[in-house]
Amino acid sequence: MSVSALLASVALAAAPSELRWGADAEGGAPYIFEQPPGHLRGFEVELAELLARRLGRSARHVQGPFAELLPLLERGDVDVVINGIEATEDRARAFALTRPYWAGPERLTVRRDDPAAPATLGDLRGRRVGTLPGTLAERMLRAAGADVRTYDGGQEDPYRDLALGRTDAVLLDAPIALYYGERPELTTVPQGFGELRYAVVARASDRALRDALDDALASLVQDGSLPALLQRWGLWTDASARVLGVTAPPGGPSGELERWRARSGDGVWAVGAGPVLRAIGRGAAVTLAISVAAMGLAVMLGAVLALARVYGPRPLAAMALGYVELFRGTPLLLQLIVVYYGLPELGVRLSPWVAGWLALGLNYAAAEAENDRAGLLAVPRSQMDAARVLGLGRWQAVRHVVAPQAMRVALPPVTNDFIALLKDSSLVSVVTVTELTKTYGTLAAATRDHLGLGLLVGAVYLLLGLPFARLSRWVERRLAAHLEVSR
Amino acid sequence: MSALRIEELVRRVGRERLAVLDGVSLEVAAGNVAVVLGPSGSGKSTLLRCLAGLEPFDAGRVALGALEVSPARHAVLLGRVGLVFQSMELFPHLSVLENCTLAPRLRGEAEPEREARAWLERLGLADREEAWPQSLSGGEKQRVAIARALSCHPSALLWDEPTSALDPERKREVAAHVEAVRSRGIPQVVVTHDAELSGALEADRYRLGDGRLTRLANGAG
Fold first, then answer.
1. Which class does domain A273-483 fall in?
2. Is the pTM of this model over 0.90?
3. What is the 3-state secondary structure (H, E, C) of A284-304?
4. What ipTM did this prediction achieve?
5. Could A389 and B78 be called an inter-chain contact, meaning their C-beta atoms sit closer than 8 Å?
6. What class, spelled out in words, does domain A18-99+201-266 have in CATH?
7. Is B107 a domain residue?
8. How far apart are CA A384 and CA A398, in angstroms?
9. B119: which chain A residues are within 8 Å (Cβ-Cβ)?
């Protein structure tokens, strides 16, 4: 599985007839979401397809976490990012931005039953206000002196917390307020605040692509297909009319928005069990594959490190100790990001699978090395002496006498570590590998069923870990057979 | 069969370079037994470890028949001199037979089981081949340790306090084991503070003290 994914990502880098566009499907409606699971929908999905067609290419979506989309672009994993990226002056300096494809205000959402609900930016001073990090809304809230709470988990979370009374208001882009802020207990202040514009982002070095996209956008405005697209998703705004230079509003029903409204509250099973279970099965397979592969690397490298520490010459032992301290003492997430986004600066470009496997494996090797070392040290030195007196070489003695005994001590923690690794593997979603937790996030954003899906996915993690716990008990029993008194 | 000869062996340890062995000389002819007595801390274990190749020595010479070993090459002794440890040190993860065949097998001997089985049988362990060391009595463990050492065809056999880990009624059997090995013409050194064992053996007796070995008159010790 990992090999084919690897080959696929290599092949993809070479295909010039594609427009690879990055977006985070966990972000949700109306930008990009899965409905039914495995099927991408959203106004940016349609926009990407329209743009690609104008360029004579085919659109290919690349999944990446929202916070890492621009690094993915710099890395060359995608040609453009289309995911509600705000056109700011800072970004215009670092990237090649197209003309805007949407413009509109930030919207303030509050609780209906809150007598002190804020209604203007001025009211927000000192109040707890939720938003998404790095947005225009966040900057406006900071300027207004609000007590800002930012959410990384998706667009639904700020509104959930508001409904629960954990915050007093939510300020977010109009499309998000429209799709996630409409709950019975919430209301959105009619007046909008500020103006933000979404643009397609290309690499600064890729101005030719940007210019071609600008032309494509202009023609999509001219033939009315972009205004019609925004109208269908209920996203047509006065500001969009102004920045797109459209005088006559497109008119017509907002079919996609109505569909979303009709579906919300249906829960995850409304689309049928099949697609949901298939998506979760795919995520589970990815989680299991990358965890097993990473554990294999960790166990092998860990054994080498432990042997180097216990039996190696002093410089080698010191290097092994340095390795253990470095990888044990720094966060796995940092290591993963450095391997995937940092190493390309040195000319090392790893595929997402290889980067995820390597980072997990290198990190857990440090833990395995410590387990194995404890095991080696638990075997009395006199066992080594006895082996040497019989004429075994040093490595023969380690291999045939010390290591087999050390294994019995080292094995139980290894199982523990594997289950920990299974859970930590959710971090590989930051390098665009869609595993089980990311699958959960994406499904939950589209279906708004966090609890039911959460329980289901939790159960899948348990099921993945249990066979290994059993396997380890079996191996432990086998390794301990010699301690039973009769044979 | 060859003799074991030790000439002016010196072993210094620690920062002070204290001489634990300060010119130890000893000759044990093929088929002979030397008993080394002495209080704990007198360097008996160090002497055995040097002779087995586990520890280096600083000066002197160890000779196994025609093979002369100088201080720099002490590791040459590994695999040539058998040592029956005080704590036996059987390999707990291997069966009795596997304990005996591991080293010959790794050395590439054609039929490692043959010699091992012969010794196990001679020592009354024929029916314990498949047992785990954990399931053996103290006396059985020692016999496995002896069979394991002899399966490697050692040029000499060393015993470190062979009676200390045994029940009183088993202690008497040790002398018989030493005699069994003597019949193969292998020189042996038995380190002990067990006067009864010492008395039961037909052997030259020595006392180790102040880093030197003194020969005792027959009947003493």
1. mainly alpha
2. no
3. HHHHHHHHHHHHHHHHHHHHH
4. 0.94
5. yes
6. alpha beta
7. no
8. 7
9. none
